[in-house]
Amino acid sequence: MRVMVVDDERPARDELCYLLREIPGVEIVGEAGTGEETIRKFGECTPDAIFLDIQMPDASGVDVARELARLGFSPAIVFATAYDQYAIEAFDVNAVDYLLKPFREDRLAETVQRLKRRIEEKNLGVDQTTQAEQVTTEQVQARDFLAKLDQIYTSIHAAEGREGKLKIEENGKILLIPFGEILYATIEDRSVRIVTRERSYLTNYTLTELEGLLKSSFLRVHKSYLAQLDQIHSIIPWFNNTYNLIMKDNSEIPVSRTYVKLFRERMGL
């Protein structure tokens, strides 16, 4: 089975590639870190299956899948995501699978077996049809595939509009912190600290996981910071065309050069 791996985080992509290479019968024929790169490379390597990160700098994985479908491609797609259960239900549809981050070897092995069965069934169906029937079948499959992706796309954006709560374990309790109360998250040693107006919480999340869990009003502004845009009080221009953000609790966080372009676009600067 020929697969392509897409993730904008190089460590996550390397980890998934490593795990896939350990599974017999899997050949990695392409990698990409952005939606644009994925579209460009897909036609060159023509994989049987593609592992797609949900959140990338220039497009979501669902956007990329929809574009591939409109171009006439209908690969077996696995979405890699950190979304919690209410959104995961949207992925559990025919011909589309999902993997939760961080990846588990046993779950990945199940996914690969599922993909292999689907690809074998698809190839068997092609072998048993005439050329004319094959064209018609492929058109129907492409239409159904795009409809399923539209269903997922709608479900995700509907879920993003809900007021969610972040689960944090502390002193044997599970605290539920409304997304709207979070000012920002930052890396502290090997953990991530969630900061609200009232207090802060040390958690076991990674910033990448939080990007998937939190609503779209949050944005990665630095390799060590994830900020809620609605909680920014003011923006101070800084060196090398970057910015410092003054949050509503008067704390100050940086916008690095890596993320400044995306930040400007989101803020209309």
From TrEMBL:
Top-down, what is the taxonomic lineage of the species of origin? Answer: Bacteria, Bacillati, Bacillota, Clostridia, Eubacteriales
Gene3D superfamilies (alphabetical):
2.20.25.10, 2.40.50.40, 3.40.50.2300
Q: Which UniProt keywords apply?
A: Phosphoprotein
Q: Keyword Phosphoprotein on this protein?
A: yes
The keyword RNA-binding is assigned to this record? no
Mind telling me which InterPro entries this protein's record contains? CheY-like_superfamily (IPR011006), LytR-like (IPR046947), LytTR_DNA-bd_dom (IPR007492), Sig_transdc_resp-reg_receiver (IPR001789)
Which positions fall inside the Response regulatory domain? 2-116
Q: What is this protein called?
A: Stage 0 sporulation protein A homolog
PROSITE patterns in the cross-refs: HTH_LYTTR (PS50930), RESPONSE_REGULATORY (PS50110)
CDD domains associated with the record: REC_LytTR_AlgR-like
- What does the record give as the function of this protein? May play the central regulatory role in sporulation. It may be an element of the effector pathway responsible for the activation of sporulation genes in response to nutritional stress. Spo0A may act in concert with spo0H (a sigma factor) to control the expression of some genes that are critical to the sporulation process.
Q: Which residues carry this modification: 4-aspartylphosphate?
A: 53
Q: Name one GO molecular function term.
A: DNA binding
The HTH LytTR-type domain covers 166-269
